[in-house]
Amino acid sequence: MTTTAMPKPHGDRGMEGIVAKWYAANTAEVMNEYQELAQRIAREIAPGSRVLEVAPGPGYFCIELARLGSFEITGLDISRTFVKIASKKAAEAGVNVRFEQGSASNIPFPRGTFDFLLCRAAFKNFAKPVPALQEMCRVLKPGGRGLIIDLRGDASPALINSHVDRMGLSTFNRLMTRLAFRTMLLKSAYTREQFMQMLAQTEWRKVEIVEADIGLEISMER
Ligand SMILES: C[S@@+](CC[C@H](N)C(=O)[O-])C[C@H]1O[C@@H](n2cnc3c(N)ncnc32)[C@H](O)[C@@H]1O
Q1: pLDDT tens across 188-222, in order?
Q2: How far, in Å, CA of 96 to CA of 114, rounded?
């Protein structure tokens, strides 16, 4: 699971643009991760499913999923810069994905809209995590599934270094990514116990949390 430093949602627009472009280029180096995740999800959801990715950034997961089947896919990101980047990349790829601007803690869709929801490498960035969890639940249909994939707050430095080294990044990006993990990302990431406490304050029905390498996968059913 790749994850890296991100602009503050309401920070300086020029800086946000630079960091967003850097993130889009850096994560393009690990496109196989998005492809593998899209293949896995495409096997798990029904044709025609309505899918929402919360905080898609450059939109790579949505685009890869759109290549694999007749899904109705929407991406919702707080950053206008990322919405523009993702929309352009989807158009270039010739796939139909709708990217919109909005916040995870105030999702601009009616209750019960989607069959499946993904939030990858982004949850730790949310300013209001519990309202975001509740909003994700609200916009799913009854029986709909949500999947959050993110960094574990208790991942050790040794695990992080070996994970970054395996990503096959260029030397500069490898050093930048290691630094971002150490100085920023771990500080905002949650542990399994913290997720359980937050989820207990929401309407999610079934929850399963799996720890793997430096990440957590939280599978939820509405
Ligand atoms: C590290 S990127 C992850 C992008 C993508 N999910 C991926 O796997 O590459 C984090 C994303 O979270 C978005 N974000 C941060 N806070 C948000 C919020 N409250 N609502 C929606 N998106 C948010 C950022 O704009 C950014 O696109």
Answers
A1: 999 999 999 999 999 998 999 999 889 999 999 99
A2: 17
Residue 90 CB contacts under 8 Å (≥ 6 apart), including other chains: 59, 62, 63, 66, 96, 97, 99
pTM, two decimal places: 0.91
pLDDT at 104 (0 to 100): 98
Looking at residue 23, its pLDDT comes to: 81
- Is the shortest distance between the CB of 57 and ligand 1 below 6 Å? yes
The arithmetic mean of pLDDT across residues 71-92, rounded, is 97
Q: Which residues contact 25 (CB under 8 A, 6 or more apart)?
A: none
* Cβ–ligand 1 contact at 50 (below 6 Å): no
Q: How many of the other CB atoms lie within 10 Å of CB of 15?
A: 11
Angle at 35 between CA 30 and CA 41, to 5 degrees: 135
Rounded to 5 degrees, φ, ψ at 4 are -150, 180
> Does any ligand 1 atom lie closer than 6 A to the CB of residue 124?
no
Which strand (E) or helix (H) includes residue 141? strand 140-151
